[in-house]
Amino acid sequence: MTNTTIASQSPAATAGATPQVNPSAPAAPVYPVWEKLGLGPNPVFLAPLAGVSDAPFRRLCAEQGAALTYVEMLSATALLYSSPRTFEMMRRHPAESILGVQVTGKTVDEVGRAVALLSEHSYETIDLNMGCPVSKVVKSGCGSAILRDPQRVYDTVRAAVAATDKPLSVKIRLGWDRSSYTYLEVADAAERGGAAWITVHGRLRCDDYAIPVDLERIAEIKRRLTIPVVGNGNVFSAADAEWMRRRTGVDGVMVSRGALGNPWIFRAITTGDASVAVDEWRRAVLDHLAWQLEEYGEKGFAAVCMRKHLLWYVKGWPGAKRLREDLSKIDTLAQAGQLIAEYADSLVAQGVTERLPLTQDGDPEQRFVWDPKYDMDRQLDRGVGDDHMSQI
Ligand SMILES: Cc1cc2nc3c(=O)[nH]c(=O)nc-3n(C[C@H](O)[C@H](O)[C@H](O)COP(=O)(O)O)c2cc1C
Known about the structure:
Layout lengths: L31 H6 L6 E3 L8 H9 L5 E2 L3 E2 H5 L3 H6 L9 E6 L3 H12 L5 E6 L4 H5 L10 H13 L5 E5 L10 H11 L3 E5 L13 H10 L4 E4 L5 H11 L3 E4 L9 H7 L6 H19 L3 H14 L7 H7 L5 H17 L26 H11 L6
Parallel strand pairs: 1-9, 2-4, 3-4, 4-5, 5-6, 6-7, 7-8, 8-9
The structure holds flavin mononucleotide.
The site of flavin mononucleotide has 25 residues, from helix 16.
């Protein structure tokens, strides 16, 4: 294990002004695995997001430029027990072109069997979660608990790679806590075990979202490995994505909270166009509602799932306090659609054409960053908690 003493601070704190997106920058190398998946250079991924990255939301993000999206994290145990909720989460919509699935498990054997099963489904790629910090997940030896044992990382990746002919990736954090930065051993183990790439969330298991993302350590992993490295953490804008690429040299960026209520972040990162017009906002939110209805039917669950998205969508639009209050009470998707359409009409009547910027310019360490923390812990618990993870 590495007990390194490098300060855990983002280099952005001392590195000057926010870089601007430069679409004409020289193209990054395209790795064979990116080609196999049909991805271009510097791809931008939507993270697996428990309770959030279902088919309707993934479709919106893909439409806006997410090159690869993921099903929310699955439990290997629940999968092997054929949990109905897990199979519901595994559904893929025909409109989805490149889709990944993520799984975590408590033993090497269990992960291997789960990957073999997932490999029979139509996903293009499979990811192993070794970063989830949720207590009930790590207590059962899953998620970031695996980071404490690089040998287990190696054995798990080997077993998983042997169980599928699809590209197999691993998503990690930097380690368990400040006395256990295992990222170098873990990254080596993943590469030696045969991982096609590795995604690094630049925080420890013990860190909350207030802790800056450690770009220096992500860069250290990038310099060390020959497989592609994808950076993750605090990407809320095109400038943040550019900053991460520039400071770390990563081969791709994964967006998580930055996509909540803002699927347009993928367009902003991939094209530099950060504007969101009222009409496209209205169309996307109404599409989301329609796809939610198609996916779940008009039952209470669908409306409850949708409420959080709607509250996130309202960010950056003027005078939305009343709308937010009304949306938090909706019982049906039809009611939500009516509220959204009326609100969009009222914006047009007031002469509002575009959403306000969600971030301010300036040093990424100093500026206000839009952070949709709304109900985040409950989301995590609901997403990976009481349903399928209770079987672990
Ligand atoms: C609501 C929510 C659900 C999440 N679910 C997952 C998950 O299923 N699998 C996973 O690897 N990470 C999950 N994460 C972690 C994110 O993918 C990401 O690693 C983390 O939020 C850091 O990125 P960010 O700072 O850009 O949000 C989740 C995060 C949030 C906020």
